[in-house]
Structures are given as structure tokens and as C-alpha cells.
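Lab notebook, design round three. We kept the backbone fixed and only want residue identities now. Task for the bench partner: fill in a sequence for the structure below.
Input C-alpha cells:
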């Protein structure tokens, strides 16, 4: 975790230049690796019920006591653990890893360790130098973490989105492009008993959708179609098409073409819904930094970028959907939902 600096150290590292500020980033990067190792070892779970001394902890984790002592020292120095007479105990920061953030930390640690080498090459060339989805497809564990992140976000936002953007009266057909885990299709199908949905995504992503639709009892109403959304899209005459967190995986030209093709699947009066993280979102310093690094990952691993709501409006208008409605989601103010009707 970020080190707690005394005001004097903060001045020396962050303001006066007497000490190198980037040294703090180096320690932060090392701390993330150490916390990820702790998670994989089951360290934080083993400490969940109270302090445990080193020998007992090493036995419980099946770890070498000398190796574990060094890791515990690093995690204590960076604020994850405290050491007291009863042994090592987790701080509030470490407890957040057990409360769900552990999956997020492991996912991003794996992405940055596995894909961010050569970051400067994608900046120099302007094109991606890694392939996020191919890389994920070869790593079922990391893909499962990614799907869990998306699923949790969809379960949190789905209700608000269905309320904010109801489908046209009598809607019967919905196309969910890049909808992998199928949670948004499921939310709309639950809201509209007469609705059938088709999710189009890469084969690996559809595994999660298959399990979700089965457990929702919607196997017969949600079709899962493996395919590349940049190719010919299935179906015409749709009542609604979803482009949720999909456009940011592509550069401007491909994203605009995708919007055009998506609108082309709609009937007159059908609606296009676009959900994207807003690059102009003014959150706190942490939110601004995360959005910037999120976009850096898009550029480097997918050739993508965050497209502004105004840019998306322009693509929708050019595709035949003049006049859009925008909803900033109260459950995630960093996300904008754009709704447009095919004229
Ligand atoms: C960031 S996820 C968003 C998933 C879901 N729509 C959501 O909002 O939670 C992007 C999805 O697009 C899919 N995807 C990316 N490129 C694709 C392509 N060329 N063809 C089909 N699906 C693609 C990915 O597999 C992934 O499921």
C-alpha cells in the first residue's frame, strides 16, 4: 500500500526533490507483487481470525519459515500487516483484500507483470504491442478474474441501467455485442418476459455467459454466439443493441464502424445503448489516476482508447441515431450510459 509519510518525508520525496519521489513508486510496485504473493499463498485468510506467530503460519501455509519471514517483513513495512507479541495480524488495508479487492489486485498485478513489458514500444509505434484477449484466452485463471470483475460491475449497475434505459414497448429482440458474461442481457430479459437476447462475443468469454444464463433459468431465451463483432453481425430488425464497455477496446475508426454496424441491426425506433467510462470524469486523484492507467492498458494491449461521450454521440448521429440521451450512473459516476433511437 502507499507508505504513510511523515510531513518531513513527504516534503523531501514529493516537493523539494531532496529525495527521489519515484522511489516511492518503486516500493509501491514491489508492495503490489508482495501482496499478490501473499494472496496466492493464502496468507491473509490464515490471519483473518487473529494474530498468528511465524512458525504456525509457515506450517499452515506449507511455506518455508525463512522465506515467509522475509515476505512478512516486506508486508509489515508497507502497511499490510502488524507484528505484535501474538504474531502477525492483518491491518484494515489487508482486510480489504479479503473483502473482494484481492481479485482486483491479482488481476491487475497479472496484467501488468504479463503484458506491460515494452510499454514504450506501443507509445513509439502508436499501435498495440500486446494482445489482451488472446493473452487472456490462454490463461483461464486470469480470464476468470476478469470475468468476475465484469460480473460484479454488471450486477451492481444492471438494475440502474434497466431503470434508466427501458426498452421500447413490446420489445422482443435484443443484441448484446461483446456481452460475454451475459449479465446485462439477463437483467433485460428478467425485466421483459417477452424478450429474447443474443450475446455475441469471443468463444472464451461465452463460457461465463453459458453458466450465468443456465443458473438464471434463461438458457432458452439468451442465445450465446461466438464471433468477432468486427465481422458481419447476426440479425436485423432488433429492438435494442447493447455496446457495453466494448468501444474502448478499439481505436476511433474501428469503434465508429462498430457503432454503424450495431445501429444497422436495429429496426426503426429501436435503441442503441452505449456504456463507457468517461475520460473526462472528474473524480478524486485516485479515480483520475486509475482512469489514466486503464486507458494506457487499452492503448498498449488492445489498440483502444476511452472515447468521449461527445465522440460517441457523433458516431451514433452519423449512423442514423440523431439526438442522444445521457445518463451518468449514480452507482458509478465514472460511467456514462448513452441511449439513442434509430430514426
Ligand atoms: C470489457 S468487456 C465488457 C463485457 C460486458 N459487455 C460488460 O460491459 O461487462 C469487453 C468484451 O468484449 C469482448 N470482445 C472484445 N473484442 C471482441 C471482438 N473483436 N469480437 C467479439 N467480442 C469482443 C470481450 O471478450 C469482452 O467480453
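Proposed sequence:
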Amino acid at each position: 500500500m502507499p507508505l504513510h509519510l511523515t510531513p518531513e518525508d513527504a516534503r523531501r520525496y514529493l516537493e523539494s526533490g531532496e529525495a527521489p519521489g519515484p522511489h516511492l513508486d518503486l516500493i509501491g510496485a514491489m508492495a503490489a507483487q508482495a501482496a499478490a504473493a501473499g494472496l496466492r499463498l493464502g496468507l491473509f485468510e490464515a490471519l483473518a481470525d487473529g494474530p498468528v506467530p511465524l512458525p504456525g503460519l509457515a506450517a499452515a501455509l506449507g511455506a518455508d519459515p525463512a522465506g515467509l519471514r522475509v515476505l512478512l517483513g516486506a508486508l509489515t513495512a508497507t502497511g499490510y500487516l502488524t507484528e505484535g507479541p501474538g504474531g502477525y495480524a492483518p491491518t484494515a488495508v489487508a482486510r480489504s483484500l479479503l473483502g473482494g479487492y484481492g481479485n482486483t489486485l491479482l488481476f491487475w498485478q497479472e496484467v501488468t507483470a504479463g503484458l506491460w513489458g515494452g510499454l514504450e514500444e506501443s507509445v513509439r509505434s502508436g499501435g498495440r504491442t500486446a494482445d489482451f484477449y488472446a493473452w487472456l484466452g490462454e490463461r483461464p485463471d486470469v480470464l476468470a478474474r476478469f470475468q468476475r470483475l465484469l460480473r460484479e460491475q454488471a450486477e451492481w449497475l444492471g438494475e440502474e441501467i434497466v431503470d434508466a434505459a427501458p426498452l421500447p414497448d413490446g420489445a422482443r429482440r435484443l443484441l448484446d455485442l461483446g456481452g460475454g458474461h451475459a449479465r446485462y442481457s439477463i437483467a433485460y430479459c428478467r425485466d421483459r418476459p417477452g424478450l429474447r437476447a443474443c450475446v455475441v462475443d469471443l468463444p472464451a468469454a461465452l463460457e461465463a455467459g453459458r453458466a450465468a444464463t443456465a443458473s438464471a433459468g434463461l438458457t432458452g431465451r439468451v442465445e450465446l454466439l461466438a464471433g468477432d463483432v468486427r465481422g458481419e453481425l447476426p440479425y436485423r430488425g432488433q429492438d435494442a443493441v447493447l455496446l457495453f464497455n466494448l468501444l474502448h477496446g478499439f481505436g476511433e475508426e474501428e469503434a465508429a464502424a462498430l457503432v454503424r454496424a450495431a445501429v444497422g441491426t436495429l429496426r426503426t425506433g429501436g435503441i442503441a445503448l452505449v456504456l463507457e467510462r468517461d475520460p473526462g470524469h472528474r473524480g478524486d486523484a485516485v479515480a483520475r489516476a486509475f482512469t489514466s492507467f486503464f486507458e494506457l492498458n487499452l492503448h498498449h494491449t488492445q489498440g483502444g482508447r476511452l472515447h468521449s461521450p461527445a465522440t460517441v454521440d457523433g458516431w451514433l448521429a452519423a449512423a442514423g441515431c440523431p439526438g442522444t440521451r445521457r445518463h451518468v450512473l449514480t452507482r458509478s459516476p465514472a460511467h456514462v450510459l448513452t441511449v439513442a433511437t434509430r430514426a
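Keep this in mind before ordering anything: The mean pLDDT is 96.
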